[in-house]
Design goal:
Blueprint lengths: L5 E3 L2 E5 L11 H8 L2 E8 L8 E12 L6 H10 L12 E12 L1
Antiparallel strand pairs: 1-2, 2-5, 3-4, 4-5
């Protein structure tokens, strides 16, 4: 799965946005409610494999559904992705409280 995210201190935010989906009740949100241990993998690909890298953020995920509580996430996502100023974020926000990270190379 590919996701848009914003990093604020030790928290990574992502949201269920208004891009076409059959429902806002996504399985990934349900899964995080049942098992909050989660990782976010960010990678960079190049045809020149010596330029490959990845970073994995490990932590505890929580679902933020209230508009007030998700204001920091919305602001951060809008600052990183101009489209979020025009595209609604009608679904829940996922916050990943980062406990550790790994990288390669």
């Amino acid at each position: 799965m590919v996701c848009c995210f914003a990093l604020v201190g030790d928290v990574a935010y992502t949201a269920v946005d208004a891009k076409p989906k059959s429902t806002l009740a996504l399985q990934r949100v349900t899964n995080l409610g049942a098992q909050p241990a989660a990782s976010l993998m960010v990678d960079h690909y190049e045809d020149d494999w010596s330029q490959l890298w990845w970073v994995r953020l490990d932590g505890t995920a929580r679902i933020i559904e209230s508009a007030t509580a998700s204001e920091e996430a919305h602001t951060s996502l809008q600052a990183k992705y101009a489209q979020y100023a025009e595209v609604a974020i009608p679904g829940p926000v996922i916050a990943l409280d980062i406990h550790s990270w790994r990288m390669w190379p």
